[in-house]
Write a structure and sequence with these properties.
By secondary structure, the chain is an alpha+beta fold. Helices cover 23% and strands 31% of the residues. It is built from four helices and eight strands; from the N terminus they run αββαβββββαβα. The protein starts with 29 loop residues before the first helix and ends with a helix.
């Protein structure tokens, strides 16, 4: 398919709540989904939400590297994952602070608090309902990408902007 341009922070689409996909429209998404996967991989990302390519719809893709997968991830996360109309049903009270980046905010990282585990549901690329428990990095990626669908960028989740900066500056200091 095609690698699409990733829009960056400041574009109003990234601050807009995305529209749900009607169940009858899931069959129209394969081209968009493949473009999203191709774009995510070309940019060396682990996730991409439709608003990042200018589409105001509730679709996201992600692919957790094997080195970041838990044992339960290895059983369920084979290849790129597609979530249509995802929502978090439940989340842990425990919060972890980890560094995040974003393809829409290139070359910048920030330390972001996220729930350490979540339960989410969605529709997959074939139109099937799915429900999963996610822990650690998997939970973090889903929360990050789902935020995009709600018009939220990770700096808005940060509690300490002293832990926010350009990658090369952070690595030097």
């Amino acid at each position: 398919m095609a690698v699409r341009e990733i829009i960056r922070m400041g574009n109003p689409i990234l601050a807009t709540i995305s529209h749900p996909i009607k169940s009858d429209d899931v069959g129209t998404l394969p081209g968009i989904i493949q473009d999203m996967i191709d774009t995510m991989r070309a940019a060396k990302g682990v996730g991409l939400a439709a608003p990042q390519i200018g589409l105001n719809i509730r679709v996201l893709v992600f692919e957790i590297p094997a080195s970041r997968q838990t044992d339960s991830d290895r059983e369920t996360l084979i290849g790129p994952q597609v979530l249509i109309n995802p929502r978090i049903i439940q989340f842990s009270e425990e919060v972890e602070f980890e560094w995040e980046g974003c393809l829409s905010i290139p070359d910048i990282r920030g330390e972001v608090p996220r729930h350490s585990s979540i339960e989410y549901d969605a529709i997959d690329a074939e139109g099937n309902n799915l429900r999963r428990n996610a822990f650690g990095f998997h939970a973090r990626v889903v929360q990050h990408e789902l935020d995009h669908l709600d018009g939220i960028l990770y700096p808005e989740r940060m509690s300490n902007l002293r832990q926010f900066g350009f990658v090369d500056e952070l690595e030097e200091n």
